[in-house]
Recover the amino acids of this structure.
């Protein structure tokens, strides 16, 4: 069977990554999503196994020692990790899987799985990014400034990614991301099975 | 300005290549088509400059000597060539251009322009290819057999291409080809301009 592929998706907070991915999964329910394992407390509206697996610090460290994370990070006293097994199982089963992760995490995963295809989602400008964060209405002006500074740092690393999608129009950005996934499945090495079948008749 | 790209499209006679390309150009009128220069006589229904430039043998040889062909071929006493200048001008102007060509021509062009992206269009099976050729009704059973033999030889070289599109459903095949072109424009090196613009603000 033809192997699946890991797609790494990054982009600064406010670039529209979550909305783009939600739309993509509606169109492509066959694509899997990598669920992170984290030790922070569950927030209102969150559900176990939806976007995160919630575990204790002890459980996390046990998994870490067992080599169960493709990458992990400690942030404000909590651990965040990308489980290795589900990604490897998906790929072996010929399924594509998307991992949404920050630029540092992406670099770590890429170093372990260089065949992963990575996509950076950008806002059309820093001004537009700030407007989007303001529209959310969940952050103070100071927090928005700090997020914009973070975004600038992240965007300087867009060059590390295979593809760059600019989100100036939601549907266009979803079409863009969908085209990256679709075309990747048409690459010669991913069409070996059908090629072999037809060539058998030759 | 960001450079355009040359896309090489090949596939055996009867694979549906012409229909797929016609549909693609309806959707993407911005994409150019490389017009071949040939010395054979114009056939009924053909127009100068549509699919071919018709020139005399003398003109062809003059152009050949001037290095004006990316590749050329002699077949049953006629010359067929791919003009170099229009391809180079398109790419320099940031336009994408499609070259429809056989496997031998594709190999010659690829050796001169290794950055070209190549796509092989396959029928879903040899049996289906024969059915399609029969449905055309323009060839004798013997000619169909000979085309099928040719197709087999060509299909063995599908492995030389970057992407393989199987034409078992016309719209799906057009979507496939369109996704290859769209995603290629999202590659990091083709997004340099927008990346620079946004990063200037960082």
């Amino acid at each position: 069977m033809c192997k699946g592929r890991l797609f790494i998706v990054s982009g600064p907070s406010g670039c529209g990554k979550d909305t783009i991915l939600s739309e993509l999964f509606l169109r492509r329910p066959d694509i899997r999503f990598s669920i992170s394992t984290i030790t922070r407390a569950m927030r209102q509206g969150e559900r176990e196994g939806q976007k995160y697996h919630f575990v204790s610090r002890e459980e996390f460290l046990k998994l870490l020692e067992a080599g169960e994370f493709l990458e992990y990070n400690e942030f404000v006293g909590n651990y965040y990790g990308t489980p290795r097994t589900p990604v490897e199982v998906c790929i072996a089963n010929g399924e594509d899987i998307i991992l949404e992760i920050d630029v540092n995490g992406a670099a770590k995963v890429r170093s372990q799985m260089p065949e992963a295809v990575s996509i950076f989602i950008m806002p059309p400008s820093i001004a537009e990014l700030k407007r989007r964060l303001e529209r959310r209405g969940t952050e103070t002006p100071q927090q928005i400034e700090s997020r914009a500074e973070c975004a600038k740092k992240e965007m300087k690393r867009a060059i590390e990614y295979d593809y760059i999608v600019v989100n100036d129009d939601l549907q266009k950005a979803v079409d863009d991301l969908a085209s990256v996934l679709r075309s990747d499945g048409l690459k010669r090495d991913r069409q070996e099975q059908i090629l072999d079948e037809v060539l058998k008749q030759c």
